[in-house]
Amino acid sequence: MGTMLSEVGRWEEALAASEEAVHIRRRLAVANPDAYEPDLALSLSNLGTMLSEVGRWEEALAASEEAVHIRRRLAVANPDAYEPDVALSLSNLGTMLSEVGRWEEALAASEEAVHIRRRLAVANPDAYEPALASALSNLGNRMSEVGRGEEALAAAEEAVHIHRRLAVANPDAYEPALTASQSNLARAYLAAGDLGRAIPLYERTLVDSERVLGSDHPDTLISRNNLAGAYESAGDLGRAIPLYERTLVDSERVLGSDHPDTLISRNNLAGAYESAGDLGRAIPLYERTLVDSERVLGSDHPDTLNVLGSLAASYAQAGRIDEAIMLLERVTSDFVRVLGSDHPDTLNALGSLAASYAQAGRIDEAITLLERVTSDFVRVLGSDHPHTLSARHNLALWRGRRGMPPVPRPRSPTCWPTLCGCWAPTTLTL
Asked: Measured at the alpha carbon of residue 345, what is the angle toward residues 417 and 228, in degrees to the nearest 5?
């Protein structure tokens, strides 16, 4: 019941149903653990997903961790029956840990899931290779988050290779999974800055999604959104904006105006208008999206906070710097409270606040904040992560304008984006 309600965007009702299922199964498991603990673990896993949908990440993580704990214990007694469930729970736990910025722990959980599923697939490939491919796809995402780009590509490419082979033998069963793996591989190419491979693969994924699932399927809408994002990353706004506009119209028609995916589509279209310098359309669209996100998702949902930050950046671009700083100070405080001071979104928000301070002529405050952000990125993500490289470059830029010596650069800088006051997570991937 909870899953079905979630699919149509009725998140609060879905959560209530999942909480009731956990309550019932926990009571049954107390009386008869052998009979009901497996079902309790399943309900906890579903509850974790529902809690994440409404932005209650810490509670989602707690539910997912309990599901892993129960399934590990069951697998000790009966590995053949429960090891596949352990791998599934670990993969879900990796996603939850990623959402709260605990990226190294997320990676460890995903690596263990792949290890289990690879061993199972060796013994029984027909039964477990599909799950191995899904775990590899998730592992690629986790590798990208910690800046291990080559390993991320290797995992994502292996996932596509397995799904492609399975789809040849049984297209009806595996072509949908193949399109998802292709999308994740394209995302890995994009994260590595390889637009020459990312864009054609996103284009192919969209064509395949329309053929396999239909033009109105929610996953097809996601593929269209992601292709538009790749075009925007390449600076091709002439193709990005019409595609974002079509995605938004179709999302409102198919999913409804209040569906979270529709809100993401609206935010991304506003971001493309902003990139094109069309603030007359960007700002009202951001403002509408913020009002709707607060109403539908709540003020503390990470997607809502991202919209708030995007609106602040558009105010800064429009010269409304005092309003921008006010919103950015609010959103950084909210990110610290909701996700913690070390979450990458929190650090990106602080970097955007520093950019606004600099735009307002408050250079010393900007430098002090950027020094803190750079130090935190080094500690949390490492010296060679793209976020760290960007923060280090921005700090060097403003220290140079003050006549101060630059901080030592990392060993192998790959790119140096310019400090522009842009909100880092403007484009949200569905």
From this structure: 65
